[in-house]
């Protein structure tokens, strides 16, 4: 993480546009990503931070942890925003919408939503576990059983965001308590207020728990599970 990098001081005072909407971070039009504490309110520019923060983005899915990291990465030279913005229409193929006014405006453009998560059968209910509780224990409280085969439908950032704030974003994780939300009082190295999804289905585990996470669980009545197997 490059938050200790000091931005070079220009001989002329910069004025920057910035994203100005996230609770924790901002990205300015020079591609700098910084915490709010390092944003100069007079100029709108980051004074310290990380420039072109592509390490917060997944090159395969082309998704970033936050809008701010997306804007910062988009402005990196290798993505050619400074060339593309003046050629692309605001709405693809529609000249009446005009072209983007700047690389920053282009990089802040609305993005396509993630594809919807697989739908659950009506017999399976989504339950939010208490902190430190396994899905087995969570489902038992409603006289149901954890339906492991349906956990894949929970394993989507959009699904997690309907149940948790996910203030720190949503990330892949190699643990066995995913999908889950890390509590705000967790140690910093455990990514507090982050939502976590599993990297592969082999990680799914109904019995796993962690002291600082709340799990999202697919719960079904025992009779319905038995019927589906039979």
Question: If you had to describe this structure to a student in words, what would you say it looks like?
Answer:
With 230 residues, the protein is an alpha+beta fold. It folds into two domains: 5-107, no CATH class; 124-229, no CATH class. The protein is built from six helices and 14 strands. Strands 9, 10, 11, 12, 13 and 14 form a six-stranded mixed sheet that branches. A four-stranded antiparallel sheet has the order 1-4-3-2, covered by helices on one side. The protein has a two-stranded antiparallel ribbon with strand order 5-6. A hairpin with a 4-residue loop joins strand 5 and strand 6. The protein is elongated and about 60 Å long.
Which features characterize this protein?
elongated; disordered C terminus; alpha+beta; 6 helices; four-stranded antiparallel beta sheet
Summed up:
The chain is of the alpha+beta class and 230 residues long.
Helix-strand string: EEEEEEHHEEHEHEHEEEEH
Major sheet summary line: 6 strands, mixed
Number of helices: 6
What structural category do the secondary elements indicate? Answer: alpha+beta
Give the DSSP E fraction (strand runs of 2 or more residues).
15-25%
Give the topology, please.
Blueprint: E1 5-6, E2 25-27, E3 32-35, E4 48-51, E5 57-58, E6 63-64, H1 67-74, H2 81-84, E7 89-91, E8 94-99, H3 103-107, E9 124-128, H4 135-140, E10 144-146, H5 157-161, E11 170-173, E12 180-182, E13 195-198, E14 213-221, H6 222-229
Parallel strand pairs: 11-13
Antiparallel strand pairs: 1-4, 2-3, 3-4, 5-6, 7-8, 9-14, 10-14, 12-13, 12-14
